[in-house]
């Protein structure tokens, strides 16, 4: 068990480098299985989830080579349909390999996925979508078996409308449809930048995808995909976390590389608590946070699919609002159990009441350090941020959750002046 020891009332300053996006990298690593040639994926963050995803690829027979943040993959020899159960059960994105496996090899056998424990997280949309492309699916003894139906060799293009714009299901189906016979039309799909990044990677490998970044994807299947050299986009959730770190410590920071348009929802909320932004160049932003926040009058916000406010920044902004004067309300609409950080924030002195998926936060300047526990990735970063704003020392258990999704988070914070140690 790792602990983070954070001394509060820190001031931050300087520049922070934003790593490649976790959720893009994981999807693109799954997507590499669609190609049978050499693929080079650049700007892959060094994370626990990435290591686990690489285990998944290796367990299928892919050849993987690491060189810093670049990963070289050749999956020509992948023929085995059943990836390592232990790795699949630890990350959500491991399940996304079901798309390429069924499309390229006709069969997949997978354990149900893990990932952050923030709700029930079913995979019904992935499976119903695959059925619409001609797969047959059964769940036996906790494992999903999927194969090309009617004794066929290849999936067939089809139409599927998602009940909800699921990121993972959109990615699974996009990968499957790329190698299906004929045209697929997927509607009400997710528009997250990471979905578009996966589409751009597949297009670089020769896939025919139109509409990435919109709610409808039209995909013309091709026989096979070739290799590519592809660079992952910057992580908007990591960038958002550092913007909130600047706000909660009433500091100024410069962040790059970033794609500002991916951060509109978070920058708007931070502007409403008095933060100012300077776009220094195309991929660099400076945030300046005033020492005293203006009184907040009923700031109400809800998480939602992109371009709405991301659920993956909900715990972090809650830490911030717990330190701002006035009352604010956050409604979590994406995951039914993503309020696990609230009880821990309350131990630090935050005044928060929750009723189902809605938190009412009464800001206070009196957070004080104590021992708290992170039970998931973003709860971990939210508690570290709250610890930086609190008086005295906080001990945050469960730092390994943070390692799942942030590259060298404590080291980056230390370089900005935070007093944070890993025990
Ligand atoms: C590895 C990865 O990319 N993880 C991200 C991805 O997770 P993930 O792909 O799991 O999230 P989804 O977009 O699929 O989930 C959104 C909602 O849809 C529901 N749902 C999803 C699939 C399904 O088959 N049936 C179903 O009901 C989920 O329970 C949830 O309530 O998008 C989430 C929403 O932006 C982010 O929080 C995660 O960081
Ligand atoms: C929920 C998250 O990740 P995952 O889907 O991988 O569990 C996250 O990154 O906040």
Automatic annotation (TrEMBL):
<comment type="pathway">
    <text>Cell wall biogenesis; peptidoglycan biosynthesis.</text>
</comment>
<dbReference type="GO" id="GO:0005737">
    <property type="term" value="C:cytoplasm"/>
</dbReference>
<dbReference type="GO" id="GO:0071555">
    <property type="term" value="P:cell wall organization"/>
</dbReference>
<dbReference type="InterPro" id="IPR013792">
    <property type="entry name" value="RNA3'P_cycl/enolpyr_Trfase_a/b"/>
</dbReference>
<dbReference type="InterPro" id="IPR001986">
    <property type="entry name" value="Enolpyruvate_Tfrase_dom"/>
</dbReference>
<keyword id="KW-0133">Cell shape</keyword>
<comment type="similarity">
    <text>Belongs to the EPSP synthase family. MurA subfamily.</text>
</comment>
<protein>
    <recommendedName>
        <fullName>UDP-N-acetylglucosamine 1-carboxyvinyltransferase</fullName>
        <ecNumber>2.5.1.7</ecNumber>
    </recommendedName>
</protein>
<keyword id="KW-0961">Cell wall biogenesis/degradation</keyword>
<keyword id="KW-0963">Cytoplasm</keyword>
<dbReference type="GO" id="GO:0008360">
    <property type="term" value="P:regulation of cell shape"/>
</dbReference>
<dbReference type="InterPro" id="IPR036968">
    <property type="entry name" value="Enolpyruvate_Tfrase_sf"/>
</dbReference>
<dbReference type="Pfam" id="PF00275">
    <property type="entry name" value="EPSP_synthase"/>
</dbReference>
<feature type="domain" description="Enolpyruvate transferase">
    <location>
        <begin position="7"/>
        <end position="413"/>
    </location>
</feature>
<keyword id="KW-0573">Peptidoglycan synthesis</keyword>
<dbReference type="GO" id="GO:0051301">
    <property type="term" value="P:cell division"/>
</dbReference>
<dbReference type="InterPro" id="IPR005750">
    <property type="entry name" value="UDP_GlcNAc_COvinyl_MurA"/>
</dbReference>
<keyword id="KW-0808">Transferase</keyword>
<dbReference type="GO" id="GO:0008760">
    <property type="term" value="F:UDP-N-acetylglucosamine 1-carboxyvinyltransferase activity"/>
</dbReference>
<dbReference type="InterPro" id="IPR050068">
    <property type="entry name" value="MurA_subfamily"/>
</dbReference>
<keyword id="KW-0131">Cell cycle</keyword>
<dbReference type="GO" id="GO:0019277">
    <property type="term" value="P:UDP-N-acetylgalactosamine biosynthetic process"/>
</dbReference>
<keyword id="KW-0132">Cell division</keyword>
């Amino acid at each position: 068990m790792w602990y983070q020891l954070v001394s509060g009332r820190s001031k931050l300053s300087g520049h922070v480098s934003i790593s490649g996006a976790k959720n893009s990298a994981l999807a693109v690593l799954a997507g590499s299985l669609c190609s049978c040639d050499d693929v080079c994926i650049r700007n892959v963050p060094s994370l626990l989830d990435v290591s686990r995803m690489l285990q998944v690829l290796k367990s299928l027979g892919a050849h993987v080579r690491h060189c810093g943040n670049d990963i070289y993959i050749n999956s020509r020899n992948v023929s085995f349909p059943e990836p390592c159960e232990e790795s699949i059960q630890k990350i959500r994105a491991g399940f996304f390999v079901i798309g390429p496996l069924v499309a390229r090899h006709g069969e997949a056998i997978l354990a149900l996925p893990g990932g952050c424990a923030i709700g029930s997280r079913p995979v019904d949309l992935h499976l119903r979508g695959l059925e619409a492309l001609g797969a047959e699916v059964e769940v036996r003894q906790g494992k999903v078996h999927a194969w090309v139906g009617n004794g066929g060799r290849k999936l067939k293009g089809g139409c599927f409308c998602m009940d909800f714009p699921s990121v993972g299901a959109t990615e699974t189906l996009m990968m499957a449809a790329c190698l299906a016979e004929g045209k697929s039309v997927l509607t009400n799909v997710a528009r997250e930048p990471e979905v578009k990044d996966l589409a751009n990677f597949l297009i670089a490998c020769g896939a025919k995808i139109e509409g990435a970044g919109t709610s409808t994807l039209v995909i013309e299947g091709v026989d096979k995909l070739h290799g590519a050299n592809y660079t992952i986009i910057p992580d908007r959730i990591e960038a958002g976390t550092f913007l909130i770190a600047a706000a909660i410590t009433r500091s100024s920071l410069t962040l790059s590389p970033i794609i500002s348009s991916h951060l509109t929802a978070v920058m708007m909320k931070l502007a409403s608590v008095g933060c100012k932004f300077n776009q220094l160049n195309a991929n660099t932003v400076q945030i300046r946070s005033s020492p005293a926040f203006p009184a907040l009058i009923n700031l109400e916000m809800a998480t939602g699919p992109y371009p709405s406010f991301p659920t993956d920044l909900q715990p972090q902004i809650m830490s911030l609002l717990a330190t701002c004067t006035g009352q604010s309300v956050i409604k979590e609409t994406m995951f039914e159990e993503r309020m696990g950080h609230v009880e821990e924030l309350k131990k630090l002195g935050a005044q928060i009441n929750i009723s189902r998926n809605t938190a009412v936060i009464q800001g206070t300047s009196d957070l004080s350090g104590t021992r708290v526990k992170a039970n998931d990735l973003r709860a971990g970063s939210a508690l570290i941020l709250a610890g930086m704003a609190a008086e005295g020392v906080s001990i945050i258990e469960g730092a390994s959750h943070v390692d799942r999704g942030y590259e060298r988070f404590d080291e980056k914070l230390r370089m900005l002046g935070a007093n944070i140690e890993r025990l």
